[in-house]
């Protein structure tokens, strides 16, 4: 998810995640997962703020 810098810190992420949770609940889903780059500290903090927790570290060799 991308939030325009002018709107960051205004609860946009929370509103989108709340709507996603409501939609998932209406479909009987009990879990929501997402992927975020490990270097994207601001996104990780935003997702943790609304309740997401890291569960897996993906690694690769190129």
Topology:
Elements: H1 12-26, H2 41-49
Give a verbal description of the structure.
It is a single chain. By secondary structure, the chain is mainly alpha-helical. The protein has one domain. The chain is built from two helices and no strands. The radius of gyration is 13 Å and the shape is flat. The two termini are 26 Å apart. The relative contact order is 0.15. The model has no long low-confidence stretch (mean pLDDT 93).
**Residue-averaged pLDDT:** 93
Give me the strand/helix succession.
HH
Assembly state: single chain
Radius of gyration from the CA trace? Answer: 13 Å
Number of strands: 0
Distance between the termini: 26 Å
Q: Indicate the percent of residues in helices.
A: 25-40%
User: Which band does the percent of strand residues land in?
Assistant: under 5%
Structural domain count: 1
- The coarse overall form would be flat
Which structural class should the secondary elements be placed in? mainly alpha
Poorly predicted regions = none
Largest sheet: none
């Amino acid at each position: 998810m991308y939030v325009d810098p002018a709107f960051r810190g205004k609860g946009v992420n929370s509103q989108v995640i709340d709507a996603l949770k409501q939609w998932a609940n209406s479909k009987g889903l009990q879990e929501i997962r997402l992927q975020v780059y490990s270097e994207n500290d601001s996104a990780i903090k935003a997702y943790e703020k609304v309740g997401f927790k890291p569960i897996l570290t993906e690694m690769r060799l190129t």
